[in-house]
Amino acid sequence: MIRKDWTHDELVLAFNLYCKTPFGKIHTRNPDIVVLARSLGRTPSAVSWKLANFAKLDPALQARQIKGASHGATAEIEVWNEFNSNWDELAFESEKLLAKLSGRRVGEEFEDYIYETLRDGKERTSMVKVRVNQDFFRKSVLAAYNSKCCITGLAIPKLLLASHIVPWRVDIWNRVNPRNGLCLNPVHDRAFDQGLMTVTTDFKVIVSKSIKSTSENSAVKRFLLDYAGSSIELPAVSTGSFFLEIPQRKHFYRLAMKGGMIMNVRFNYLYRDAGNYKSWGAVIFRNPDGLPISEIESRLRKAFFQYDLFIAGQIGVLEVFLYDKSDATEDDVCFHEFDSVEFTNEVPTDAMDRTAAEFLEVVELSSKMGWKAFDPRFPKH
Fold first, then answer.
1. Who's near 246: CB < 8 A, 6+ residues apart?
2. Distance of CA 116 to the CA centre of its chain
3. Best CA proximity match to 60, nearest among 238, 179, 203
């Protein structure tokens, strides 16, 4: 048989499958390997061997003195480096190739969700990429942890989440990087997200002091406190220790040690009429990304119209006008005015349950599209 060299696209597809395959399942009987081999016109042995070549490059396996194939090619190294240099683009590119190979449209399984989102003005191509990459990240992280929660060992995939060590909105370069992921159950995912639980760089579970004050609650003890000080199960590949060490994650760790939690953000604004009478409004947003107040305020002031003015309806906050449509005069205005942002322990009140980061995106998009002024004396629609 004439030996057929692997193309770049074939290697990208093989790496895609490597990311989604637990190391112990890289063998010729794996159904996913068999399917890819058939689609590429290759043998399961050839595909399995190629995945083993990628395993040889994995630093997590090297650290555990587990060896992949003894021989590899520079082409595999190039693809490995391409992914690790730009996970967001390469993950999506590999999914597009996989969809084409399967005779389907990339992201078609998310079309119902995307259709609903499009009603809110989201751009389809961008949304497809986000959903496809999120699915890639989930499958890769679950594969790395053999579909088990790294804290409890829970092994029901439908009850597991791929949690970002450094939040998705904080580090755009590693949103899809499996090394930036932990496999957690929903309770611990939420606790990790809120800074009530974290993992140290030596992979020990730390529980916030604020949780310890509720130790008399049996559920808190059973679900959280009993795991304090325990070691997580390490992933078979792509360890996330690097991400546990960087500043954004350490910020959450410090909060947990001090007994704090990620504070919500209160957005204060007002309406001022022609006579300088004022009506106040406020919305409280979740802040799981731990965005500092200085950054939030700076981005808001940059996005708002001159004198910190904005159209409330465009950014989804309640209008607090002092007039009704029936008694508005030519001296009344359509703009609201930004006052301040501050941290708060109050519960979120945003009707759309947005995070502070998501709210900022809406404000910045509205600014880019232009603030839609209107005459208060007449209906806007």
1. 166
2. 20
3. 238
Burial of 210 (0-12, 13-18, 19+ CB in 10 A): middle
Give the chain's residues under pLDDT 70.
Answer: 1-3, 60-72, 110-126, 169-171, 213-215, 237-262, 323-328, 379-381
Residue 113 CA to residue 140 CA, distance in Å, equals 22
Instruction: Name 197's Cβ contacts closer than 8 Å, sequence gap at least 6.
Output: 188, 191, 205, 206, 207, 208, 211, 224, 227, 256
Alpha helices (H) along 153-226? 186-193, 209-212, 218-223
Tell me the residue length of the chain.
Answer: 381
Closest CA to 304 of 370, 233, 210, 256: 370
The answer to whether 160 touches 175, Cβ cutoff 8 Å, is no
Residue 158 structure tokens: 């439908």
CA 290 to chain centre: 13
Identify the three-state secondary structure at position 372.
coil
Return the pLDDT at 193: 78
Question: Which phi and psi angles does 341 have, rounded to 5°?
Answer: -130, 150
DSSP 311: -
- Which pTM value belongs to this model? 0.64
Handedness of CA 17, 65, 247, 268 (dihedral sign): positive
Q: What is d(CA 174, CA 169) in angstroms, rounded to the nearest whole number?
A: 10
Residue carrying the six token digits 């404000």: 363
- Spatial distance between the Cα atoms of 49 and 40, rounded to a whole number of angstroms: 14
* Nearest residue to 207 via CA among 228, 190, 187, 223: 228
Asked if 55 and 69 count as a contact pair (C-beta separation under 8 A), the reply is yes
Alpha carbons 211 and 197: distance in angstroms, whole number: 9
Contact call for residues 220 and 214 (beta carbons, < 8 A): yes
Side by side, the strands of the sheet bearing 336-344 are 278-285, 264-272, 336-344, 309-310
Give the rounded distance of the alpha carbon of 209 from its chain centre: 26
Q: From the CB of residue 237, how many other CB atoms can be counted at a distance below 10 Å? A: 24
> What are the backbone dihedrals phi and psi of residue 350, each rounded to the nearest 5 degrees, phi first?
-60, 130
